[in-house]
Amino acid sequence: MKLIIQTPHFDAQQKLLAFAEDHVRKLQLINERIVEAHICLKLDKSDKRENKICEIKLVVPGNDLFASKQSNSFEDAIQQSVSALKRQLEHWKTNHEQRAEKTQ
Fold it and tell me: Which InterPro entries does this one have (predicted)?
């Protein structure tokens, strides 16, 4: 899986980038057909404490999946986004298997 990480308007520490990469790569255990993952870590310029945003787009043949979460830390936003994508991948896999059974 090709991984693209963007951090517009700030320089992320290597530790944060490794954290994001490690968590997103685990999604391949659910679906090995993931071609690319685009991760965007952004700072919301609002006055709220929860101003860290993680957006992840997974490119899967036949269907792209997307999750965006906002939290008070990037690590938490990454974990929430990955969790949402895990649910989407499991749902997609279940539906895909059911369709395959119907065509047999």
Answer: RHF-like, RHF/RaiA
Q: 85 with 58: CB under 8 angstroms?
A: yes
Q: Does domain 2-103 have CATH number 3.30.160.100?
A: yes
80: helix, strand or coil: helix
Place of tokens 């899967």: 60
DSSP letter string over 12-74? --HHHHHHHHHHHHGGGGT-TT--EEEEEEEE--SSSS--EEEEEEEEETTEEEEEEEEESSH
Q: How do the domains of the chain map onto residue ranges?
A: 2-103
Strand order in the sheet with 36-43: 2-6, 36-43, 52-60, 63-71
Q: Which two tokens stand for residue 103?
A: 């065509």
pLDDT in tens, 2-33: 999 999 988 999 999 999 999 999 999 998 89
